[in-house]
Amino acid sequence: MASGWGITGNKGRCYDFWMDFSECMSRCREPKDCSLLREDYLECLHHSKEFQRRNRIYKEEQRQIRAAAQKVKGGDGDGDGVPHH
């Protein structure tokens, strides 16, 4: 990865993030000064924040579906979700 070559022979998708992080590390006094650039590089490699966000969205959608099903099940007599007058 640090060579800059991706799997298809072109520039790697995270190479620009790596170069920014590498430049920062070479000129900074404290490694913690580059923590945001490191975080960006690792996110590009592993997509961990993206996956966490997708999981939270999925869980919330499932919670809303279950809540709607419970409301329909307990709300009217026949459970079809259509109010009758």
Unreliable stretches covering 5 or more consecutive residues:
none
* Separation of the first and last Cα atoms: 66 Å
Instruction: Tell me the series of helices and strands, N- to C-terminal.
Output: HHH
Bin the helical content. Answer: 55-70%
Description of the structure:
By secondary structure, this protein is mainly alpha-helical. Helices cover about 60% and strands about 0% of the residues. The longest helix is centred in the C-terminal third of the chain and has 28 residues, at about 50-75.
How would you sum up this structure in a few lines?
It is built from three helices and no strands. It has 85 residues and is mainly α.
